[in-house]
Each structure stands twice: as structure tokens, then as C-alpha cells.
Design brief:
Layout (H helix, E strand, L loop, with lengths): L1 H19 L4 H27 L3 H27 L10 H12 L2 H29 L3 H28 L2
Helix pairs in contact: 2-3, 2-4, 2-5, 3-6, 5-6
Length: 167
């Protein structure tokens, strides 16, 4: 027991390093957070495609499934090529958010989803803008640079949809 207790402080950083593979801590955080965010966008997009009353939101939801699904596949490929392991499960916060939207319907769903996609894409654009400047891994930086224009377009479309619902 004593030996295990003494080795624990050494083992934990090793496990974290194995999970990150060759990526720096900051680069791995970007990968992990982007992957989880993209997965949440896909799941919420699937809900919107099914539950939204507004056809524009249904279409936007399907676009989220397609675009974020494609980006997540590319991100997974990059991470695996660096020996990093992506999270297999969503965080409590992400699961809570998805469950909240599963319980909504009708105009309540449309209003909440429209607000959420604007807020989320503002955050995404900011994070990806920072990533294009701060990531040290060249493949991840290229991914962020390539993905940023799509996220900006998503934000513009989300803002237009949110505005159209308020009319």
C-alpha cells in the first residue's frame, strides 16, 4: 500500500501523457474540447432535424450533423496520428444540455435551439481564432485554420435564423 501511494503521483502524469500522445497539454485540451463540442453539435443537430418546427432550423440542424460530423472525423484522425486518445464519453455538462433539449418541443425547442447555436458558435469562433495563433502542432493549427471559415458561416446563419424567429 505504501509503495502504491508513493508511486501514484508518478503514475498519474504518465497516464495523462499517454492519453495526450505527442500533443502538448494545451493542444490536447483544444482537441478534447473541440471533439466534445462537435459531438454535442451533431447530437443537437439530429434533435433539431427531427423536432424543430421551423424548416430553417431543421435544415441547420442537418447541416450541423454533416459539418461537425466531418470535422470530428478529421480531428479524430489527427489525434490518433499523434497517439492521443479522444474521450469516449461526454461530460456531465454536455449530457445535461442534450437531455434538456430532448425534453423541449415546438416553439420552445426552436427558441432555445436558436439561442444555443448562436451562443455556442460565438464561443467556437473565438476558440478557433485563438487556436490558429496558439496551437503548436502544425496539423492541428491547419485544422483550426481550415475549420474557422465554416464556423463563422455557421454563426452568421445561426444569427439570421435567431433573428427570423423573433419577427
Amino acid at each position: 500500500m505504501l509503495v502504491a501511494g508513493l508511486l501514484m503521483p508518478v503514475a498519474l502524469p504518465l497516464l495523462a501523457a499517454e492519453q495526450r500522445g505527442q500533443l502538448s497539454e494545451k493542444d490536447f485540451k483544444f482537441v478534447r474540447d473541440s471533439f466534445r463540442g462537435g459531438t454535442t453539435e451533431v447530437q443537437l443537430g439530429e434533435l433539431a432535424a427531427q423536432k424543430a418546427e421551423n424548416q430553417g432550423l431543421k435544415d441547420f440542424g442537418q447541416r450541423m450533423v454533416n459539418d461537425h460530423g466531418k470535422a470530428n472525423s478529421e480531428l479524430r484522425r489527427i489525434a490518433e496520428s499523434k497517439g492521443a486518445m479522444l474521450p469516449a464519453e461526454m461530460s456531465h455538462k454536455e449530457n445535461f444540455e442534450i437531455n434538456r433539449f430532448q425534453k423541449l418541443s415546438g416553439k420552445d425547442f426552436d427558441k432555445e435551439y436558436a439561442e444555443n447555436i448562436v451562443k455556442d458558435h460565438k464561443k467556437d469562433v473565438k476558440e478557433f481564432e485563438e487556436a490558429t495563433k496558439e496551437l503548436t502542432d502544425p496539423d492541428l493549427r491547419a485544422f483550426a485554420e481550415k475549420t474557422l471559415p465554416t464556423l463563422k458561416e455557421h454563426l452568421r446563419a445561426a444569427q439570421d435564423l435567431e433573428a427570423s424567429l423573433k419577427k
